Amino acid sequence: MILDEFLRAAKAKGASDEFLVAMLKEQGWQVSDVYQALGRYYVEVTGVPIPEVRGRLESAREAFFHLLAFSTLATWVFATGNLWFELINGWVPDATDSRYYSQWTWSQVAWQMAALMVAFPAFLWATRAILRDQAANQASASSPIRRWLTNIALLLTALVFIGDLVTFVATFLQGGLTLRFAAKSLVVVVLAGAVFLYYNRGLARSAVAPQQWHRGFAVTALAFIVLTLSLGFMQTGTPAAQRKISEDRRRVQDLYHLAATLNNTRSGSDLPAALEGALKRTDPFTNSPYEYHRLGESRFELCANFSAESRPLPPSAQDQWRHPKGRHCFQVQVQLPLQYPLH
Q1: Is residue 7 in a domain?
Q2: Inter-residue contact 325 to 311 (CB < 8 Å)
Q3: pLDDT higher than threshold 70 for residue 132
Q4: 105, 222: one domain
Q5: Rounded mean pLDDT of the chain?
Q6: Residues of 80-89 as b/e, b for ≥16 C-beta within 10 angstroms?
Q7: How many whole angstroms separate alpha carbon 139 and alpha carbon 79?
Q8: In a domain, 33, yes or no
Q9: Residues 70 and 188 occupy one common structural domain
């Protein structure tokens, strides 16, 4: 092009870019055309293409992956901590804790395990996308979006550290420093410390962190998660075992409501010889009728076939609806309060 040849000859004579733009503008050339020609000249001289500005689409994509990595990291870290908390509650009983570790507690363990199995692979995928983008574009390692999100992560982790320390000291002053509490505090310190170290030494640097650092964090986190999930499965059992427990829970609920009906609406002498009408109920899974036996004027028993043994409870917890696997009967004294099933 004539413009390119002119600029090449003028630059060879030492003409400045400002002089050439002003002169060509006076001659009627569009400023954008002049700058494009200058760009082609410098690409030819340097042999390096002009870097492209990251558009809104690239910035939105970068923000998406960073937010996804941060949110999934928080999800699986908190799930890991909550799961260890429940495990510690079961391993280290505390007489001052009035909670019963019923099916609700174990269902929470299952939810935390599910969060681990979903959030951790999503975190690895998002982090891999971030590192791949940084390898292709070194400038993204120091982008404002990345700096803001990583520093927010560091701030939140530091706040968790401070909150754990304050809680530890306050609990100590109140005389509540027990083995259970110390173990939970250790879990918080380990998880928060790992996150802080990862962001501080890995993602928080202006340059791209070594791949070995990210790979080492991923392998260590995976090993810890596998250990956590293994311990969780030891407590919850397989999905098939959980199904049996759910079926037994329904049977216990049926027997409890049936016993409450007989207990509240009849005196001892009014107990029926057999269940009839609305009182006659069947096992919803086997369609076998629940057994009823009148033991006297003031006592009766209800029987059912259970698929599994009741879960263990703390020594201080009493549950009159506990049962072994197989056929089992519960005796009820008329007009005495019934305990609601704990499992």
Answers
A1: yes
A2: no
A3: yes
A4: yes
A5: 81
A6: bbbbbbbbbb
A7: 34
A8: yes
A9: yes
80 within 8 A of 225, measured Cβ to Cβ: yes
Task: Give me 222's structure tokens.
Answer: 């995976």
Euclidean distance between CA atoms 50 and 230, whole angstroms: 53
Stretch 39-45: mean pLDDT, rounded? 81
Domain count, the chain: 3
The most confident of 10-24, 40-54, 121-135, 296-310, by mean pLDDT: 296-310
The values of phi and psi at residue 325, to 5°, are -75, 140
The DSSP result for 300-331, as a single string, is EEEEEEESSPPPP--TT---TT---SEEEEEE
Domain boundary among 236, 264, 290: 236
Characterize the bridge pairing of strands 291-294 and 326-333.
unpaired
Per the CB < 8 A criterion, the answer to whether 105 and 343 are in contact is no
Res 59 pLDDT > 60: yes
* Same domain flag for 78 and 185: yes
For the purposes of burial, counting CB atoms within 10 Å of the CB of 169, is it exposed (0-12), middle (13-18) or buried (19 or more)?
Answer: exposed
pLDDT digits (tens, 9 = 90+) for 63-111: 888 888 888 988 898 889 888 988 888 788 766 665 554 444 566 788 8
